[in-house]
Specification:
- The complex is a heterodimer of chains A (115) and B (112).
- In chain A, β7 and β8 form a beta hairpin.
- Chain A is built from no helices and eleven strands.
- By secondary structure, chain A is mainly β.
- In chain B, β6 and β7 form a beta hairpin.
- Chain B is mainly beta and 112 residues long.
- Classes of the chains: A mainly beta (115), B mainly beta (112).
Chain lengths: 115, 112
């Protein structure tokens, strides 16, 4: 059973370009969470999705950021018109369906660098 | 909303000594408390967790204790080894949705 798969592992974008980060959850997991981590800092919640639904996007910036988890395929975190401040590690986690308080497993992250 | 406080932010111990990291949470409805270990350049790895119906859980050299009345939980690592050096995060679920809110992390250094 493969773990949470994120790609790419490293992504370099010029200011103004778009960044697309992909996350395939563990088999059987229907909940996906995206977190952002700046160097030497903790994990900041961004968005929580279930298949075809956004459950909680309270941590997402209102502009330029969007996320989806379609019926088929990976979850996508999309950042439009990237700026230097978007440079960070973005982690995806997944958990199985069920009540609150279930184990969440993380991928290895995508390190976005905006130049 | 849920708030998770973690202390200390850095911890340095000699190999073989014990290390303790403490967290407090604010949402009294929280019922699940995981701990993650993050090594440089890698994603957080779930190392142990505890649910609110027990007060302590142990797995080899690591243990977690929970005090629901005081709303705090702790990670205990005994007989520390250099490979235990990493950043450790505690977390608790937010509201009724289950997404985890993380503490700011503890950088543990184990000196040989």
């Amino acid at each position: 059973n493969a773990g949470v798969m994120q790609n790419p592992r490293h992504l370099v974008r010029r200011r103004g370009q778009e960044a697309r980060l992909r996350c395939s959850p563990m088999k059987g997991h229907s909940h996906v969470y995206w977190y952002r981590q700046l160097p030497e800092e903790g994990l900041k919640f961004m968005v929580y999705l279930q298949k075809e639904n956004i459950i909680d996007e309270s941590g997402m910036p209102k502009e330029r950021f969007s996320a989806e988890f379609p019926k088929e395929g990976p979850s996508i975190l999309r950042i439009q018109q990237v700026v230097r401040g978007d440079s960070a590690a973005y982690f995806c986690a997944s958990s199985p369906p069920g009540q609150r308080g279930t184990e969440a497993f993380f991928g290895q992250g995508t390190r976005l660098t905006v130049v | 909303g849920e708030n998770v406080e973690q202390h200390p932010s850095t911890l340095s111990v000699q190999e073989g000594d014990s290390a303790v990291i403490k967290c407090t949470y604010s949402d009294s409805a929280s019922n699940y408390f995981p701990w993650y270990k993050q090594e440089l350049g890698k994603g957080p790895q779930l190392i142990i967790d505890i649910r609110s119906n027990v007060g302590e859980k142990k797995d080899q050299r690591i243990a977690v204790t929970l005090n629901k009345t005081a709303k705090h939980f702790s990670l205990h690592i005994t007989e520390t080894q250099p490979e235990d050096s990493a950043v450790y995060f505690c977390a608790a679920p937010r509201g009724s949705q289950g997404n985890l809110i993380f503490g700011k992390g503890t950088k543990l250094s184990v000196k040989p």
